[in-house]
Amino acid sequence: MNDREKRIRAFNRLMGEALCSDDVFWLKNQLMAAGFFTAPASTKYHGNYNGGLFDHSFTVTKSLLSLTKHMGLVWKRKQSPYIVGMLHDLCKCDQYIHNPDGTWSYNPNVLLPGHGEKSIILAQKMVNLTDEEMACIRWHMGAFDDKENWDKYGKSIEKYPNVLWTHTADMMAARIFKI
Questions:
Q1: Are 113 and 94 in contact (CB under 8 A)?
Q2: How many whole angstroms separate alpha carbon 48 and alpha carbon 179?
Q3: Is the torsion defined by CA of 124, 130, 133, 139 positive or negative?
Q4: How far is 119 from 113, CA to CA, in rounded Å?
Q5: What's the angle, vertex CA 71, arms to CA 168 and CA 117, rounded to 5?
Q6: Cys staple from 40: which of 27, 52, 67, 98, with CB 3.0 to 4.6 Å?
Q7: In terms of DSSP H, where are the helices of the chain?
Q8: CA-to-CA distance for 81 and 87, rounded, in angstroms?
Q9: CA-CA-CA-CA torsion for 81, 57, 133, 124, nearest 10 degrees?
Q10: Which pLDDT value is given to residue 45?
Q11: 104 sits in which H/E element
């Protein structure tokens, strides 16, 4: 079994905890078509290898589930940590080009620019997101996002505290687990 197949099996197991088998099958096929299981998470930081995007998203999902359990987080729907964790970086599916030397570089020909907003647009095509899920995906970059919108980030945390926890899970995956 190759790495892509292992990632797909891990996706099926994890997402099967929250979604019905038909939804997992449909979502998996949408993500496969987008390149989710083979794209990197970055060009030179965490997950800068084939499949890094899935590995990072999987780790964010597991971190969100752990935070939910241990910190007593309450979500609008029980599937939210799975959906937010797995789909928060969908923008990266077409963000990078694999160079002949094995490195990755930015794709100058993406149709939709952006990060949080682009991930919401792409995720909304796959899952009907709640307002809380949209806020968590939009602001998952936290302090690393556009500083001119800092007040909006703060207001989003006040309305949906899980925005802050999503950023925390993303940072745990990227900076502590380095995936």
A1: no
A2: 9
A3: positive
A4: 10
A5: 35
A6: 52
A7: 3-15, 21-34, 52-71, 80-87, 116-124, 131-138, 150-159, 162-171
A8: 10
A9: -130
A10: 86
A11: strand 104-106
Nearest to 121 by CA among 152, 144, 155, 87: 87
**What confidence score (pLDDT) does residue 123 get?**
96
Show the tokens assigned to 97: 């080009």
Q: What is the pLDDT of residue 171?
A: 96
* Global confidence as pTM: 0.96
Torsion, Cα 10 1 90 35, to 10 degrees, reads -160
| Terminal-to-terminal C-alpha distance of the chain | 22
Helix (H, G, I), strand (E, B) or coil at 97: strand
> HSE (CB half, 13 Å, CA atoms) of 152?
11
**Tell me: the pLDDT tens digits for 102-142?**
889 999 999 898 899 999 999 999 999 999 999 999 999 98
